[in-house]
Specification:
The complex is a heterodimer of chains A (about 260) and B (about 300).
Chain A (H helix, E strand, L loop, with lengths): L4 H45 L2 H5 L3 H32 L2 H6 L5 H30 L7 H24 L5 H17 L14 H5 L2 H14 L7 H27 L2
Chain B lengths: L5 E10 L2 E11 L4 E5 L6 H8 L7 E6 L8 H5 L2 E4 L11 H11 L4 H14 L15 H12 L6 E5 L7 H16 L3 E6 L2 H7 L2 E6 L2 E6 L1 H8 L3 E6 L17 E4 L4 E5 L2 H9 L7 E6 L2 H9 L6
Parallel strand pairs in B: 3-7, 3-8, 5-6, 6-7
Antiparallel strand pairs in B: 1-2, 1-4, 8-9, 10-12, 10-13, 11-12
Helix pairs in contact in B: 3-4, 3-5, 8-10
The chains are: A mainly alpha (about 260), B alpha/beta (about 300).
């Protein structure tokens, strides 16, 4: 049976990853441990002593962990949608390479998102496992939070892939982290509920994916209500993913088929 | 009657206002080695990309294996072996992995790919580098690996875009030998080059391109006979002591004055040399050679191939 081209592209990414996995696997395990230790236990003891527990209804570590989980998938998805895409388009041109075979630009796009889903899933599963070890979530609840966390990552992957697909040089890569990822990491409810922020900042969270990912992930982890209706939160993330993927599909074609 | 592998009529490629390929016609028959000879920017690579079904045709007709590159791109590419101008190898992977991943793009079964890789490593003289990373390989090795990779799907037609540009003479000859073997096995090759010796060595038939147009077509021998004389006498004069070409005009059928030398096109070099010696000119060096495609190109365009 013939495999669709997009699966062959996923296979390619997996084979390359088999050579280069070491660095990224270590940080996948290390990041949640470091953050939960420093922010959750360190800063958390201060928050809990200062009465934070009453505002949050949970001890700080428990409150924080699902937010960090959603942020972690955002980081993985963004990084994996910037550098590999730039490498394919420009640095190593493996996209051009694949296009001299029966592979099409759509196969490249679908294959990119397919592989990315695995990568994000891996990040989410590892992070959730660390949460279980830290005791912020029960083993029974843990599988539930993986889905919204992965969707949060994919919601970033969509537009970031489209952005990377039209980038001419690498200076635009770090600005994504500087101007999008880092501010959203700080102002999307990861570390504290956004209603503690001035009113004028809050809309930023509404119109970007991370807050919706944090809300849904945290709600499932802690068994609480989301701020908006859950369906609405999921819809925003799906719109970012699909909109970005459709745009990426066009931009790949425009750039590679000239 | 066998159908031509590639058929182009009024084939045109525009990039914005720039016309890279300007209404060219050509046919490539099965089993032949067909060349596009021309300087950089002549439209050779653009033509190759259209044949390779990765660049849409702006105007005119193009069929490859009788198929339309726009609607049947994947079907065409499944039967092509493409060697691009740059070696697009995955430098973080080994020689074997590069071949394997490329083979998988064609959805070939893994066991088939493994078998073919053994043969291809032998063909590319890279057996002992099988599990080495690609990065440290020499330019010639990388080029041979790129060609081997393009053969993984046992293509009916190979597209080689400047296969030996940037290689040292030894590596070039090794590569020509490999390409010659493919030709003997009946693989159809389309080659672009700006080296006339390469075109003469390899091509059964070629077109000369300049500024997007085909300016001549035929076998290397035909083109030389048609557009050049049998012999060429190359003269170098001492610096600052050049001779008005008008004073040599009666010595040859045609004279070309280049910045560094003067070329006399003649059918009888011996006679021309005798005539020259009677002029008592101050000449630094004299070279007598047979005409080449370079001379044909010079005649047709007034410029040399490699600037």
């Amino acid at each position: 049976m013939a495999a669709p081209g997009s699966l062959l592209v996923v296979e390619r990414h997996a084979r390359v990853y088999r050579r280069t996995w070491r660095g990224s696997v270590i940080s996948t395990f290390l990041n949640p441990i470091l953050y939960l230790l420093a922010m959750g236990l360190g800063l958390g003891s201060l928050v809990d002593d200062g009465g934070g527990t009453t505002t949050l209804d949970f001890d700080y570590l428990t409150f924080l962990a699902p937010g960090l989980l959603a942020a972690a998938t955002m980081m993985t998805a963004t990084g994996e949608s910037l550098y590999p895409v730039m490498a394919g388009m420009k640095w190593y041109k493996y996209y051009h390479d694949a296009l001299s075979t029966p592979i099409t630009t759509r196969d490249l796009v679908v294959g990119h998102f397919g592989w990315l889903t695995f990568r994000i899933l891996f990040t989410a599963v590892v992070f959730t496992g660390v949460m279980v070890v830290f005791g912020t979530i029960s083993l029974a609840t843990a599988p539930l939070v993986v889905f919204p966390a992965v969707l949060a990552g994919l919601a970033f992957a969509g537009p970031v892939t489209a952005y990377a697909a039209q980038l001419e040089n690498e200076t635009g890569l770090s600005s994504v982290f500087r101007f999008v990822v880092t501010p959203l990491f700080l102002f999307s409810g990861t570390f504290f509920p956004i209603d503690l922020l001035p009113d004028w900042i809050q809309p930023i969270a509404y119109v970007t994916p991370l807050w919706h990912g944090v809300e849904t992930t945290r709600a499932l982890a802690l068994g609480i209500e989301t701020t908006w209706a859950p369906a609405l939160h999921y819809l925003v993330m799906v719109v970012f993913l699909v909109g970005g993927a459709v745009l990426a599909d066009r931009l790949y074609h425009r750039r590679l088929i000239v | 009657m066998t159908e031509p592998l590639v058929h182009a009529a009024n084939l045109t490629k525009n990039f914005g206002d720039f016309t890279a390929v300007d209404s060219v016609d050509f046919v490539v028959e099965p089993g032949e080695v067909f060349g596009f000879l021309g300087p950089n920017g002549a439209g050779k690579s653009s033509t190759m990309k259209m044949i390779g079904a990765v660049s849409p045709v702006t105007e005119g007709e193009l069929t490859v294996f009788g198929l339309d590159p726009v609607s049947d791109g994947s079907a065409i590419r499944s039967r092509l072996g493409v060697v691009p101008q740059e070696n697009l190898l995955d430098t973080e992977l080994t020689v074997f992995e590069n071949l394997f991943i490329y083979g998988r793009y064609f959805d070939l079964p893994k066991a088939v790919i493994r078998d073919r890789i053994d043969d291809l490593l032998d063909f590319a003289q890279l057996e002992d580098r099988r599990d080495d990373l690609v990065d440290p390989l020499s330019g010639g090795m990388k080029r041979r690996l790129t060609i081997a990779r393009a053969l993984i799907n046992q293509p009916d037609l190979m597209l080689l875009d400047e296969p030996t540009t940037g290689l040292d003479p030894q590596a070039r000859h090794a590569l020509w030998d490999r390409l010659y073997r493919l030709k003997q096995q009946g693989v159809t090759l389309i080659i672009t080059t700006h080296y006339m010796d390469e075109a003469e060595q390899l091509c059964d038939r070629l077109v000369i391109m300049d500024k997007g147009k085909i300016v001549a077509e035929g076998s290397p021998r035909y083109l030389i006979e048609e557009y050049a004389t049998r012999d060429v006498v190359e003269l170098r004069f001492p610096v600052g002591n050049s001779v008005e070409s008008g004073s040599l005009e009666d010595l040859a059928r045609r004279i070309e004055k280049l910045p560094d030398r003067t070329l006399l096109y003649t059918d009888n070099a011996d006679q021309t040399l005798v005539d020259l010696s009677e002029r008592a000119l101050e000449i630094e060096s004299t070279i007598v050679r047979r005409s080449t495609l370079e001379d044909v190109f010079l005649r047709l365009t007034g410029r040399t191939l490699v600037d």
